[in-house]
């Protein structure tokens, strides 16, 4: 199926006029969005790079869940980099091939983040509901393969979008726009439904368990992920709402050019949705730090100077500690006076005076 009719035949509205109105209205929000990006992008890039540095530097941070979180950080970093670069170059959507490619990149990154959130929910659900099976099958290698598959799928969706936009605007595309619109709408609905259902089941399951140390640890990790996912969906709510609305409009065969005010409203929703999305790209590491004591400890460990660690490792022990070590050696060698002293008060370590006496005797 290809589009053989002109834009004006389909909508009764001149394509050039439609693009002109679209761009003119978009410019009203452009400078607000640009200012937001200039403020948020450097902060978000710094925080995400810190998170990636901590995971690479600290061995205890290389967990299965963090494999997915690393990929999320990469998505956030790429999203901020591309957007920041576009605004630095004063590039906006102008209907050219480049703008279609940029749109495909953004939506591909969005698909990656959506599916990674689902993958994290599935991991937590399996760990809580099927712990034995999960321990036998879960691994960082499997998580890496799942993440790689998500990236490949997202790149495919991005290519479909570029081809569909080229076809929709009569520039040689061979994929109907309906396919891409349905894909994006379906992914958005499935992600929200599956993720929310799994986390509700997780909360109910954890409330039924005994407060053991292991269950408490699982609960802490799950709580951090629930908070992160809630912020994620709140930040993407406007984008998801706009996508679903576009699906409804497209499947209803309504020409957007016939309703310019509706098109302008969707532009507004998309712009403000992008600002919320930028905020989410920036605050993920802050959420990890606020909800995870392990991550805070890992940050401190990662930024500690290796030279300081080596000096601390080779530092001479205090005199009192040296005497305690010598006392322990004397006790192990069976000195009679030491044995008698140990029997008189075996529950307490020798005092400093007794340590000096042991040193003199030895």
UniProtKB/TrEMBL annotation:
GO terms for cellular component: neuron projection; plasma membrane. It comes from the Eukaryota. It is a multi-pass membrane protein. This is G-protein coupled receptor 35-like. One of its GO terms (biological process) is neuropeptide signaling pathway. Belongs to the G-protein coupled receptor 1 family. Residues 341-362 are annotated as: Disordered. It is found in: Cell membrane. Signal peptide: none annotated. GO terms for molecular function: G protein-coupled receptor activity; neuropeptide binding. The chain crosses the membrane at residues 35-56, 68-88, 100-122, 143-167, 179-204, 225-249. Keywords: Cell membrane, G-protein coupled receptor, Membrane, Receptor, Transducer, Transmembrane, Transmembrane helix. CDD domains: 7tm_classA_rhodopsin-like. SMART domains: 7TM_GPCR_Srsx. Residues 47-288 form the G-protein coupled receptors family 1 profile domain. InterPro entries: GPCR_Rhodpsn, GPCR_Rhodpsn_7TM.
